[in-house]
Specification:
It is a single chain. With about 110 residues, this protein is of the alpha+beta class. It is built from five helices and three strands, in the order ααβααββα. A three-stranded antiparallel beta sheet has the order 1-3-2. The chain is elongated and about 65 Å long.
Length: about 110
């Protein structure tokens, strides 16, 4: 199962996801878009590949990367549900706290 939190926890990986959602990029194009080394970029790409959020296509000596849109969409929807449940729980606790305090004042 993809660990979407691991994948999106780093701003560089989030930017790679945004880039690859638009079109396919070579590894060198991705490296040029950031101010980090190629070995550093390879680590970010490896994490995104491990989490199955991007795909890698080899053509000759080049590697091309693009977003796995269906996989990303599935995990994005799951993330929204998880965050929604967390917020719902927090809001219910807040409501209970606020209403509990106001009932004590009367």
């Amino acid at each position: 199962m993809t660990d979407i939190y691991r994948a999106i926890s780093d701003p560089i990986r989030r930017q790679i996801l945004r880039m690859t959602a638009q079109r396919e990029y070579t590894q060198s194009e991705i490296v040029q878009a950031f101010s980090i080394s190629q070995p550093g970029m390879k680590k970010h790409l490896a994490i995104l590949l491990e989490e199955n959020l991007i795909r890698e296509r080899k053509e000759g000596k080049f590697r091309y990367y693009s977003l796995q849109s269906d996989v990303f969409r599935l995990h994005y929807e799951r993330l929204q549900r998880e965050l929604g449940m967390i917020l719902e729980h927090k809001l219910a606790a807040l409501k209970h706290y606020v209403e509990g305090d106001s009932n004590n004042d009367t």
